[in-house]
Amino acid sequence: MDYFAGVSDALRLTFVQVMIMANLSIGIFIIGMYINLKKWGMGSTGYGQEPSGSIFAFPRMLAQQMSEHAHVHNQSVLETFVLDILFQRRILRRSPLRWFMHFTIFFGWMALFVLSLAMFAVEMVHLISAQLGVHALPEFLSPEIFRELLAVPNDIFSYILLTGIIIAIYRRLFVAKVRESTIAYDSILLIGLTVITISGFVADGIRTGRFWGFGIEDPNLAPPMALFHVVISLLFCIAYIPFSKYIHMIAIPLALLANKGGE
């Protein structure tokens, strides 16, 4: 647990340093969400009332909207969450291919995020128990064993995510309507997601000797690639979200909940 990864002895990072980076990324994410909540709460909460500058104005209004009878739609919160947010049926009604792309990217990304959290939790339990002198943990809570348990699920959800990315790239390059509407923001997000996914495959391929390693059999190269994958994932998939178009992953579900679903 002392050594995490590094491109050289001079640039070697410890587990603790990577945890500091993770906390900094989360801190940047929280600051970004604070800015967004302030912005979302600037509107008036009622007729003739002054705009609110509180970050709690939007959550209060959202809770009120979810509890009241909607003006247009009146789905339950559970129905809206399952069908409109998780299953994304609004996109399915417009384009099955676009829905499949969105669903595979969303499902793959979120599943990998949950698996990463689980791996992080096991590593923290192992680290804390070692510091406390506790050695009676279940065998599966060993980081090495738990990592192997997650190997197959990680592969499955990684390929699901990659499928969505390939469809997105195809649409941006070869579908005229999509290509003409693509802006720099869209390209940055797609390129970043592609780099993160491919770097994860390459890091695992070098470590395990599978074809994603492209024939590279030097195990000393696995930690640097893993480091690159982790750093860019922390910065792009956590810290960058509130300041990018990826904020729609949070804003759209909240809007759907407030409106009780529907179009």
Molecular structure report:
The chain has helices spanning 15-40, 57-67, 77-86, 89-94, 96-132, 143-149, 151-174, 176-181, 184-208, 222-239, 248-258; strands at 3-5, 13-14. By secondary structure, it is an all-alpha fold. The chain has a domain at 95-247. A two-stranded antiparallel ribbon has the order 1-2. A hairpin with a 7-residue loop joins strand 1 and strand 2.
Count helical runs: 11
Q: In oligomeric terms, what are we looking at?
A: single chain
Largest sheet: 2 strands, antiparallel
pLDDT average, as an integer?
A: 80
* Helix residue percentage: 55-70%
Strand order of the largest sheet: 1-2
Q: Shape from CA axes?
A: globular
Summarize the structure.
The chain is mostly helical and 263 residues long. It has helices at residues 15-40, 57-67, 77-86, 89-94, 96-132, 143-149, 151-174, 176-181, 184-208, 222-239, 248-258, and strands at residues 3-5, 13-14.
SSE layout and pairing:
Elements (H helix, E strand, L loop, with lengths): L2 E3 L7 E2 H26 L16 H11 L9 H10 L2 H6 L1 H37 L10 H7 L1 H24 L1 H6 L2 H25 L13 H18 L8 H11 L5
Antiparallel strand pairs: 1-2
Keywords:
263 residues, two-stranded antiparallel ribbon, mainly alpha, disordered N terminus, 11 helices, single chain, 2% strand, globular
